[in-house]
Write a structure and sequence with these properties.
- It is a single chain.
- With 319 residues, the chain is α+β, with helices and mostly antiparallel strands.
- The protein folds into two domains: 135 residues, 2-Layer Sandwich (60s Ribosomal Protein L30, Chain: A), CATH 3.30.1330; 157 residues, PurM-like C-terminal domain (Phosphoribosyl-aminoimidazole Synthetase, Chain A, domain 2).
- The longest helix is centred in the N-terminal third of the chain and has 18 residues.
- The two termini are 37 Å apart.
- 42% of the residues are buried.
């Protein structure tokens, strides 16, 4: 299969067919209609074999994850996903692998109401890059720069499952049959909190998704907002699967530093805190208050109850 046959067969119809796509895959460029009164949000993420995924990963799961991690960035800014571009570098063409990967990508794009509108293919080490684009009402994008002293810090869902899933895949831990499917699902098939992210537009003062671990990602908000934070580690939400599978210290390390949960961490002013649970309850995603914003710019302090908590690990860093 040549380059253009590959595109036509695997990617020409990927994702839901949107009415705002005038020209999609197959031309020199895509043509899309941008809504009046909205800003365009654009994010890019690259996954490299041997760095972000193992060579024997299920290609369908890889297609899913590639879309979900990009859409998660849009969710963190309160954006509605719309279009995807894919640049794929392949060492060789394997029809079965490509079909499964394309199916996973297309199913997930369809779930989030995205359409693949273009990209590029080339030969080389397996590398996958997606550029995701979405809409947000003009001036309503949630950024990392809006946290204020006194704001409360929240996270969605539970943290640490994906990190445990990585350890399980690497045969570093044992997980009971009761929890194994849940842990692997959280690692291979993350969920982007898209609807909840849009609901946060009127509530959150800042937000981002947790891809590199809470201790690696929360400081980005602190640095951009020029504030500090106190986080109570006893309030970090963990699944029963994680708590049953390892001791508390190991579970906490997964939750604070493991990454790849793709949950949201966000801050809320005190005067909006009362309406938070009411506004978010229709989305069925639990939220947990884990701390508050302080005036010590850039400083993340951890405590356990009323006592200081010493923790040396940080989140994942590429370099």
């Amino acid at each position: 299969m040549g380059e253009f046959e590959l595109i036509a067969q695997c990617f020409s119809q990927a994702g839901r067919s949107r009415t705002d796509v005038v020209i999609g895959v197959g031309d020199d460029g895509a043509v899309v209609q941008v809504r009046d009164g909205f800003d365009l949000v654009v994010t890019t993420d690259t996954m490299v074999e041997g760095v972000h995924f193992f060579p024997d990963v299920d290609p369908r799961a890889l297609g899913h994850k590639l879309v979900a991690v990009n859409v998660s960035d849009l969710a963190a800014m309160g954006a509605e996903p719309a279009w995807l571009s894919l640049a794929i570098t392949l060492p060789k063409v394997e029809d079965a692998w490509l079909q499964a990967f394309a199916e996973g990508l297309s199913e997930t794009a369809d779930y989030y109401n995205c359409q693949l509108i273009g990209g590029d293919t080339t030969r080389g080490p397996l590398t996958l890059t997606v550029i995701a684009k979405g809409f947000v009402p003009r001036g309503k994008a949630i950024t990392r720069a809006g946290a204020k002293v006194g704001d409360y810090i929240y996270v969605t869902g539970t943290l640490g499952d994906a990190a445990l899933g990585l350890k399980l895949v690497q045969n570093q831990v044992e997980v009971s049959k009761k929890h194994r499917a849940h842990i692997l699902q959280r690692f291979h098939y993350p969920t982007a909190r898209v609807a909840l992210g849009q609901a946060l537009r009127t509530i959150a003062s800042s937000a981002m998704d947790i891809s590199d671990g809470l201790c690696g990602d929360l400081p980005h908000i602190l640095n951009r907002s020029k504030v500090g934070a106190i986080v109570d580690v006893s309030k970090i939400p963990m699944s029963q699967a994680l708590k049953d599978s390892c001791d508390w210290q190991s579970a906490l390390q997964c939750a604070l530093s493991g990454g790849e949960d793709y949950e949201l961490v966000f801050t809320v002013p005190e005067n909006k805190r009362g309406s938070l649970e009411v506004l978010l309850s229709p989305y069925g995603v639990p939220i947990s208050c884990i701390g508050r914003i302080t005036g010590l710019a850039g400083k993340l302090e951890l405590k356990q109850g009323d006592q200081p908590f010493t923790y040396q690990h940080s989140g994942y860093q590429h370099f």
